[in-house]
Amino acid sequence: MQYSFLGKKSISFRLTLLAWLTIIVTIGLFTGAMIPFQQTMVTDRMSSEAEDIATSIGQVTATALITEDYSFTVEHCLRLLRDSKSILYIVITRKDGFSLVHTAREWRQDSLRGIWVDGNTRVDATGKLLQSDLVGQQVFHFTAPFRYSGIDWGWIHIGLSLKKYHENMRSIYARTFVISIACIVFGFIVSVGFG
Questions:
Q1: 136 in helix, strand or coil?
Q2: How many helices (H) and strands (E) does the chain have?
Q3: Phi first, then psi: what are they for 69, rounded to 5°?
Q4: Number of C-beta neighbours around residue 102 at 10 A
Q5: Helix (H) or strand (E) holding 167
Q6: Mean pLDDT in runs of 10 for the chain (195 residues)?
């Protein structure tokens, strides 16, 4: 009689362990798929914010590039920097490299190359995380082509702070961790009861 009981206990233990491991693997796979998806959503939100800012700047900058009177553009960009907690820099660059560089501390005219001037004139709006020498920290660097009257004039670059991005990602990680632990514990209780 005792042998039979141990056999039942062993099967019960294996069944409980199998159910619990299945729950852990399923939650792991779900978490592994959801975190990159959430990260993409946060990045897309930043791209949308930067695109709205670039559109605003483009409307103001159109006549300034033709007349070469940049005072209104500079004033607009400095106001955006002052009013926003997330914008770290705004750089408006013509195809020849002439640039208006705006940061919270200053604005200046410069001749820029590298990430500021793209050899591909029909580039689409893009955003990426990178280390910026302009502000000395990692930023979300967004580049939008600046077109006016069918002519490609250059690019509008916007650097957004990653403070909100990191806060959102920490929140996502914390929620995911708490929910995963709760599901694993609940799954263990259910699997023990089932076993």
A1: coil
A2: 3, 6
A3: -110, 100
A4: 25
A5: helix 163-194
A6: 51 80 88 88 90 87 75 88 91 87 88 75 74 90 86 88 91 90 84 72
Name 148's Cβ contacts closer than 8 Å, sequence gap at least 6: 58, 62, 65, 66
**Pick from 87, 110, 105: nearest CA to 157:** 87
Q: Which residues of 138-176 are buried (b: 16+ CB within 10 A; e: fewer)?
A: ebbbbbbbbeeeeeebbbbbbbbbbebbeebeeebeeeb
- CB contact at 8 A, 73 and 64: yes
Sign of CA dihedral 49, 53, 56, 58: negative
pTM for this predicted structure: 0.76
Measured CA to CA, the distance from residue 94 to residue 157 in angstroms comes to 11
Return the half-sphere exposure (C-beta side, CA atoms, 13 A cut-off) of residue 80: 27
Give 9's Cβ-side CA count (13 Å radius). 6
CA distance 93 to 111: 8
Pairing, β 126-132 against β 87-94: unpaired
Q: Are 169 and 42 in contact (CB under 8 A)?
A: yes
What per-residue confidence (pLDDT) applies to 121? 52
Question: How far, rounded to the nearest angstrom, does the alpha carbon of residue 178 sit from its chain's CA centroid?
Answer: 23
Please report, as a single letter, which amino acid is at residue 38: Q
34, two tokens: 């959801």
Q: For residue 109, which of 99, 117, 118, 119 has the smallest C-alpha distance?
A: 99
